[in-house]
């Protein structure tokens, strides 16, 4: 098997190059925002119309070293994926392969064990009430998985798919956070704001004072305003890519 090595000069010849750059950018910023954990966790992005072909990080590679060219291109319907010499991490295949195979709206999937989202996932009641503008963004838009069954291998991945049919964001009880979206920009914006909202909520709980929870109608109104706020995720992510272009341009290689 011949392995082609991509450099800064020829990486742009890769299939799905722009999508690769966007996903690589998300990995680099996950490090800067301290969403990463060792060489674990995985981000993926569908590149085929049916969502079955997707990009994902290679096994054992630290997020800070992810580049456009070292992302794997997998097919969720290929039974021989784990026999490849560059096979992905088994939990990456179990979770992301299952979702890209069974949940069409999950084009971009970001899974992290970020600190405050994981604290939230560890509580008996893992739902985050609308106590500020950021938490109101997620009002009635999150599913909580209360059936953690171990690491996200094939069986666990298939189980999780059944919970994601009408939601994009999951608090994975006793585990972490998973965000799905139509684009990398939307998914990263969601994960960024969710972690900030969870941080504010956890710190509010630490005061041991009563919470000022928004009425349902105001929380829903605010969530809809977030959804209708034009180009917010796109502008956010465009700036993140611009910063990397100035400081870590090798993510495009």
Descriptive report:
With 253 residues, the protein is an alpha+beta fold. The protein has one domain (11-248): L-fuculose-1-phosphate Aldolase. It has 8 helices and 7 strands. The protein has a 7-stranded mixed beta sheet with strand order 3-2-1-4-7-6-5, sandwiched between helices. Strand 1 and strand 2 form a beta hairpin. Helix 6 (184-206) packs across helix 8 (232-247).
CATH topology descriptor: L-fuculose-1-phosphate Aldolase
Overall pLDDT:
93
Structural class: alpha+beta
Which stretches are poorly predicted, pLDDT < 50 over at least 5 residues? Answer: 1-9
User: Regarding quaternary structure, how should these chains be classified?
Assistant: single chain
Radius of gyration from the CA trace?
A: 18 Å
Question: Treating each run of at least 4 consecutive H or I residues as one helix, how many helices?
Answer: 8
Basic shape: globular
Quick summary of this structure?
With 253 residues, the chain is α+β, with helices and mostly antiparallel strands.
List keywords for this structure.
single chain, 253 residues, alpha+beta, L-fuculose-1-phosphate Aldolase, seven-stranded mixed β-sheet, 8 helices, 7 strands
Layout: helices, strands, pairs:
Elements: H1 17-32, E1 42-46, E2 53-56, E3 72-75, H2 90-102, E4 108-112, H3 115-122, H4 133-136, E5 142-145, H5 154-161, E6 169-172, E7 176-181, H6 184-206, H7 216-228, H8 232-247
Parallel strand pairs: 5-6
Antiparallel strand pairs: 1-2, 1-4, 2-3, 4-7, 6-7
